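(Deposited chain)
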Amino acid sequence: MSDRQNLLPNDAASTESQAELKRQTLSNLYTGSAVPVQIGLLLVIGSVLYGVLTTPIILFSYHPIFNSLGFFLLGQGILITQPEPRSAAQKQVGGELHGILNSLSVLSYCIGAGVILYNKEKNHAAHFYSWHGTFGIITYVALVLVMLVGAAQFWWPIEVFGSIHKGRAIYKFHRVGGYLVWGLTAFTILLALESDFNHNALHISYYTIVPGLALVAFFFFKRANFSRMKILG
């Protein structure tokens, strides 16, 4: 395992098998307080997909489909890092899985963004005229930036930040940035409920979206160990 591959202490070369490490890390997705988080995520994505799939599918339909998938994957990417890993080797595995899930999430969001941009160009419609559109583009940009910073500090700390130590120092900002971006995605979803397309076609209700987001938010932040981040320290 080369230095450029991780920001971990020297005990990363653990005797634990890779299979056991992955099993332990993946259990973060379905044990304990991860269960209500998953219920909340499924409430959100289920509500969106039900609204989309019970109306005629048009080009625009793929925007909420891919955005909701991106939101679900983003949730998995955060869950996989909670609670704190039990060993440096598990932290390495968790970081790799976190990166895969986040990359898939950003890819899905980028497809969703591409669909809406193309659809508006095709129909000569105005861009970013609503609060949902404005916060949507802010969220897309923030997602990509947080992912790039995370990838740089995990895989290329020397090349990007000058040393592994400096890369480690960035981690807490990446983590807080991830929670802030999640908050942006949740707020943008709420703004989408007031969009013309939702009022006229999808009819996705606050009664399922708000409880779903509340479940996710409450247990995300209950599981997060903010005391270890020490942003100002």
